[in-house]
Design a protein that fits this description.
Elements lengths: L3 E5 L5 E17 L13 H5 L2 E15 L14 E4 L8 E4 L2 E5 L3 E3 L13 H4 E3 L7 E3 L1 H9 L1 H4 L3 E7 L2 E15 L2 E14 L6 E12 L4 E7 L7 E2 L5 E10 L3 E12 L4 E12 L12
Parallel strand pairs: 2-10
Antiparallel strand pairs: 1-2, 1-7, 2-3, 3-6, 4-5, 8-9, 10-11, 11-12, 12-16, 13-14, 13-15, 13-17, 17-18
GO biological process, one term: error-free translesion synthesis
GO molecular function: DNA binding
Protein name: ApaG domain-containing protein
Length: 292
Amino acid sequence: MFVFLFLHRVFGYRGVILFPWLARVFDRYDGRSNTLPPLPKTTKSSQSNIHEIRARSVTYYQVLTDTRDMPHIRAQTEAVTFLGNQERDRNLYAIPGLDYVAHEDVIPYTSTERTPIEHELFDKFLMHDSEATPNFVPREYLKSWQERHHLWLELSDVSKDVTHQIRVTVIPFYMGSRSAQGVTVHWWRYSIRIENLNPDEPVTLRERHWRIFSLSGTLETVRGKGVVGHEPRLSKEYPAFQYSSHISLSAPSGHMWGTFKMEKDDGTFIEVRIPPFNLECKSDPTDNKSLI
């Protein structure tokens, strides 16, 4: 386990890396897109313009974010959320100020402050060590916390897609289940990041359109205005927006996909794809009584 200070390349907040995860990243793109190298002419995609998927392994980090920066960024950072699965434990656990950051978005920096990051868990997880570089090391509490909640912390798949120079990234997390009167409901949390790769042409997110398929055989359509009560504008000043939401299914698995309707400044609209992503449950062999 290692720790170091960083600045987020996109959102600009200060943070400290706690530990890494290795995720499979699935990139979907159109062979005609100029945001990624074109596919060879011999591939099926270059002939029919269907979407190809590139899968690669990428390092992501679990991080603590500086609470002083939270009011000034356009991102929800509450990445650890799960249900207590025991019959006697009916709580929803969540810690604000946690995030998952890809290696490419990390800009390391140094500080001589004894507590360089303001977060309620900083002193519980880390202790000062003047001989170390940086000047703090993980406590045993952080190691045991990570081991105890590995099931809820670890991300496995990340899905990305680019449409009209707008990149959408989705990371799903299984939260647990609830049973009542013989019916079990499974819950997932998903984090979505939307980036304008050409911020000289601003767009505003006006509508969302979701398709939700459950293993039970149901297909649900959901439409709504904006996302989480916002209609974010992606411009040169603020090219990205990140938010989280939740979904429940009566089946242990399913998948989701959809589109965002974006408006340009000239009043025209574009449709941006939300890449398909799987919803898979995880079995919990341990007794999750508390988060901290």
